[in-house]
Amino acid sequence: MIRVQSADFDVGLELKKLTEGNRQIGAVTSFVGLVRDITGEDTISAMILEHYPGMTEKQLVDIEYEANQRWDLNSSLIIHRYGRLGPGDNIVLVACASSHRESAFDACHFLIDWLKTKAPFWKLEETSDGDRWVEANTKDDIATARWRK
Amino acid sequence: MNLLYFAWIRIKMGVSGEHIDPPKNIKDIESLIDWIKQRNTISNEAFSDISNIRFAVNQEYVDIDHPVQPGDEIAFFPPVTGG
Predict the structure, then answer these.
(1) Residue B43 in domain
(2) Would you call B78 and A118 a contact, using CB atoms and an 8 Å cutoff?
(3) Mean pLDDT value of segment A136-145
(4) Which of B4, B59, B80 sits opposite A122 (nearest CB)?
(5) pLDDT reported for residue A58
(6) Are the Cβ atoms of B82 and A112 closer than 8 angstroms?
(7) Chain B positions in Cβ-Cβ contact with residue A130 (cut-off 8 Å)
């Protein structure tokens, strides 16, 4: 399941819902991305996440489908927030449930790496040195390339 | 054609999108960008560095030589930074 929302999410509640009623699940992995309060030497007071409504959902559905093709998952979840967030706020949750830990770990890692380079989001940081668009990181491209078959 | 702009391209263009009716010889993203640029200085400035711009046609990532046609939703944005 994928969700794109401005509202916060409760990680504990989401993980509980992911496994509810399925006794085949032996492993759940999750990744939570948070807003940091510092970038380089500047303090961040807020981050504005902009996205492309429609395309975002489409890309997340595709990425989740790909993960479910490659690994044996019982269930998976991607929640990505947009709007104005403050330091410490949740940005993204990726969670994977499987019978065994290997699939759950690998699929979760794959999802967050792919999401970083495929999901149409852009971050504007409000810093002590003024507003600044976060630039794409080549390290993220390398991390994604690792999963190419 | 519906054009959409995101992040700093939206800021530079001053609008989040526009409906356009380009001439018939506009066949792909590259020729569309050339046409957008020659309209005014704001557009010319926003699209001055194409290496920092990515494209989507009907919500799928495409390359600069991808064909465009009437009715398409065409988006211009910087490299994505989600997660």
Answers:
(1) yes
(2) no
(3) 86
(4) B80
(5) 97
(6) no
(7) none
Of B4, B60, B78, which is closest to A122 when you measure between CB atoms?
Answer: B78
Residue A139 is predicted with a pLDDT of 86
pLDDT score of A35? 96
Quote the minimal CA–CA distance from A86 to chain B in Å.
15
A41-69 in b/e form (b: 16+ CB < 10 A) is eeebeebebbbbeebbbbbbeebbebbee
From B29's Cα to the closest Cα of chain A, the distance in A is 18
Domain range spanning residue B23?
2-77
- Indicate if the pLDDT at residue A149 is higher than 80: no
CATH numbers and ranges of domains, chain A? 2-145 (3.90.1170.40)
Would residue B16 count as lying in a domain? yes
**Touching check for B75 and chain A: CB below 8 Å?**
yes
pLDDT confidence of residue A56: 98
Q: For residue A104, what are the CA distances in angstroms to A10, A73, A100, A117?
A: 20, 7, 7, 21
CATH code of the domain covering residue B12: 3.10.20.30
Question: Is residue B82 assigned to a domain?
Answer: no
Split into its structural domains, chain B has a count of 1
Residue B41 has what pLDDT?
97
Does B24 map to a domain?
A: yes
